[in-house]
Please model this.
Amino acid sequence: MAIKTEPFILNMGPQHPSTHGVFRMKVTLDGEVVVDVEPVIGYLHRGIEKLAEGRTYTQNIPFTDRLDYLASMTNNFAYVLAVEKLAGIKVPERVEYLRIIVAEMMRISSHLMAVGFFLNDLGAMMTPMLYMFREREKLLDLFDMVCGQRLTYNYMRIGGVSQDIPDDFLPALKRFVAEMPGFIDEYDQLLAENEILLVRTKGVGVLPKDLAINIAASGPVLRASGVDWDIRRDDTYSIYDRFDFDIPIGNVGDCYDRYWVRMQEMSQSIRILEQAIAQLPEGKVCADVPQLLRPPIGEVYGHIEAPKGELGFYLVSDNSISPYRFHIRPPTLINLTALKDMVIGWKVADLIITFGSMDVCLGEIDR
Amino acid sequence: MTLLEQFQLWLASMWPDWAAYITPAIVGILVIIIFVLTMVMVIIYFERRFMARFQIRLGPNRCGPEGILQPIADAIKVLFKEDIVPAKGDKLVHWIAPIVVFVPILMIFAVVPIHKGAILVDLNVGIVYVVAISSLSTVGIYMAGWAANNKYALISALRTIAQMVSYELPVVLSILGVVLMVGSLSMNQIVDSQSIPFILLQPLGFIIFFLGTLAEMNRCPFDLLEAESEIIAGYHIEYSGMKFALFYLGEYGHAVAYSCIITTLFLSGWRGPLLPPIIWFLIKIMVVFALIVWIRSTIPRLRVDQLMAFAWKCMLPMAVINLFIVAAEVLWLPEVFPWIMIAVNFAFACALVLLWSKLFVLGGGRVEV
Amino acid sequence: MRFERYGVGIAKGMALTLRNFFRPPITLQYPEDKLVISRRLRGNELVWYPDRCTGCATCAKSCPQGNIEIITHVGDSNNYVVDKFEVDTGRCMFCGLCVESCPYEALFMGLGYERAQYRRGQLVLSKEELQPSDIRQPSGYARPKVEQTLPRQSLLINWDKEKEEGGQKLSPLPMRKRRKGNGL
Model:
């Protein structure tokens, strides 16, 4: 006689240790097996898109910090690039280099967080996360030195950056760039061959290549599925075409590949940093831009390769001091739409790690 | 003759029979409770400081010199917390569950020899008693998970039952290897016969027993029932205050108990040169516990189907093979050359671990729903 | 999935954690042991020099939150006299745009970061509270001249250098350090 069983609904979040913020999942479980997932978002909604319509172009920069608060610098970068494209501003050479240096530092920092919390979701009791926090702390110290804060940098300005780097910044960064490959090797020693990590992540939460393209996924999630697409190379912005770097591609699209792609991207960011430090020219750090910028009537979509994927800003100008429309394309919101297809049929524990391996940031999803 | 029996005889020469019978029992029980509570405090502090250093932190260092009063501060805090019972929970079961978890753990210590003759009762079936009693707390955990009327707790409770039942078998089979060599089930006899620690004579048995006990006391990498990142705290998610403290005590009491049993079975108990036996015993407990903490701070958690596969496909066959090997050796190998046995057993252990690494498949994949 | 490497990967990981066990901890014991903060720190307060302020309210215009309240009247020598200059630091997000926009270097970010209060009202800084004092020092954010006078920031990356050289000396046994004060 078959035992009568029935699925039950488990409400995960918004208060849950591994939902990375205030994400809620209505999970239908059949025993341990996930039958259905319904993501519920909006607990962190602050209406940034609407708020931005009432503020000047410069005043919106601090708000972009609050989108993906683990990668504020790239948010700034994407926004100022969009505004510069809209207003047709040419930025000085030194600014381009400074922006790329801080953006790549930000990418390392964000990936460290992503991998650390992914391991925490796997149940590794904080240890890999705290090792990664050690390296992230070094980067945050440097960001603090440049722009006076550790999380919400507000560093870039339209036409430049707010201040030049101080003189003890470059020696410290050079030391970081020299030391970091050693630490990446250490993480590999701790994680890459760990059998339990392998059995937990290989083949789990697979995002197939065609599905990844269909949902417009981007960033490490897309590249782990085997799609060779990186905006830094394929739609070059700023001066990324001057640097020599590889784009790591996964082949299966499982949690392990996403982890692996992030680890490889950190090494590539180190390479870009080395080249950028060597080429850094002297010069002005801000172009001459009026304090109250009035871009010509028009619309623009500027996008960059943020650590989590393609971060885009769609701006419409009506020749006033504030944008008429300010739309954000958050990478993780769009990556998250694949969550249901990736986890159905797996266990609860796989749901958690698949979600963790997508590296979401709720500040960006809810805006 | 144990120390308590000598004490009882001495009392019987002065006091009436009933008093001489009851007093040593009460003294023994008090000593055990004090020993367990102090040890739990010590290992909680030890674990937090030790793990902090693995994670390049400092750990608690504020309360008292070097933070040694931190467990006491935690205990006081938890005592003053409000005791909340879920409105739709099963109140009676919710109240009984922590006791059912904690009491069997205290009872394990009745048969742990911490010194020559220092044992509450020298049961002739000591190790069977340990196995029987230690599985009782599973019932308490299941009760807690059920009574809370919480789905996370229920998942945890179901995981508990599956995990405990699966890991009991390899643990018992690896104990049988030891029992075969000793020829007795008494804990005292087991210690007495270990002129060479059994970890050398039975490396495979030790590995199986150690991993099995890790699963039994819900330690990493088998801490599925309180998996913080998945089901938050599992069965004690709805507990607070003193009841939660009992679970906490139970968890660490379990760790102490199993450290004691590993020490007794495989590390020759209180025996050791130079230092007094009780010191040797404590040192060995701490070494075993340090190993547990080290594993906890390094390794991620297994998934539930992988956990079950590990028990049934890997540990159980290996434990059976180990039992046969030991039995054959006890029958046919002369006892005068233990070194031959050590070499043979290490060779077998390596061969089996390599073979199983190649052979067995850990857990299933996606389920069609 | 199989354990194809016979547990070698786990052993490697355990070796790494053991190696880190003997490394000095990177945490500092905060109230007793403080790091030298960034010269450009945007601390949780603003510092205002009334003698330099002309009451032009550029800072108020540049604030994204509309958080700076300035009321002025025309004084005797045809200048603005500031009657009220108030910042609600509970709403402020310390972006520093007001400091950057001030044309007369009258407004600075502060170096203080220990400003927890019991009431929200205490977070509103009035004209008197905003002025510099011993505990309220201006930071070098967007003010290169002030920046040069401040001590060098201690960095974790320079973990082998002393604090004075811009490092954060880590010692293997920091618990041996005597703690000052009578904190528990």
Summary: The mean pLDDT of chain B is 83. Chain B touches chain C through 26 residues (CB under 8 Å). The longest helix of chain B spans residues 17-54. The radius of gyration of chain B is 22 Å.
